[in-house]
Amino acid sequence: MSPTTITKIVLAMLLWAACFPLITAGLQYSPHLTFATLRAILAAATLVFVAVWLQRPFPRGWRTWVTLGVVGLGATSLGFLGMFHAAEFVSPGLATVIANAQPLLATMLGVAWLGERLARVGWGGLLIGFAGILVIALPQLGDGARDGTAIGFAYIVLAAVGVTVSNVAIKSIAGQVDGLFAMGFQMLIGSVPLAVAALLLEDQTAIQWTSVFVMSLLGLALFGSALVYWLWFSVLEEVELNRAIVFSFLVPIFGLTIGALFFGERLSAVQFSGIVLVIAGIVLVNLSGRTQSQKSGA
């Protein structure tokens, strides 16, 4: 894996981690589904505009459009729905643990659907990384039992499954379609169910167009959606899904770092040990992937 690819992955994970405080800030001024819909539409419009401006090739073929539909419903419809609603019902610690089962699920689907292979060392790395997530979330897990936990659990699982399926679908078309158009159209497709639900269930006049809300929306749409999905698509054009997805374990680490730098939160010794486990897991998965590549090339 090249330094440029690693930089793209790390930047994508940092941007995804920054989404959580932006969502929390913006939800004070807008209904959930309406906020999610605006994020998706603004991000989609940005990517499609850039693609047209750069005269990128338009996606063609019914298989491509079906796949983009799967990505949109998974990553945008289910992913945004779960992400925007789960915070109401469960603690951040519980949410972190459940959501970060996604690399394990994605790797299993990658093996079954894409024919990717991962050595035992790689599977061990995934388990070590997930163990690190458990350790990191340990101080907050005690706050998980509250009214509505079951509903929150369902929302997170819904989001994790949606994002997992979408990642496998993205990998299946990576390199075959332009990334700007692909990610723009998947968010446009995914925004439709969100918009319908928002119109039926929420009052759009309740939005308060404060500076905080506008900055949160722009940050989420332009950087936490448009830029990050274009980066992720370009990464999956170059490397196997199982080697890239394990970096998702970095998201809660970056989240803790953001909390420490900007919100005065402190990292415990237990959390530092979890960070070490996560990094060890990522290294093991990628060493395993490099060994497999060398064997197949020999």
TrEMBL record:
It is found in: Membrane. The chain crosses the membrane at residues 35-54, 66-87, 93-114, 121-142, 148-168, 180-201, 207-232, 244-263, 269-287. Its main location: membrane. Residues 8-137, 151-286 form the EamA domain. Keywords: Membrane, Transmembrane, Transmembrane helix. It comes from the Bacteria. It is a multi-pass membrane protein. Pfam families: EamA (PF00892). Belongs to the EamA transporter family. This is DMT family transporter.
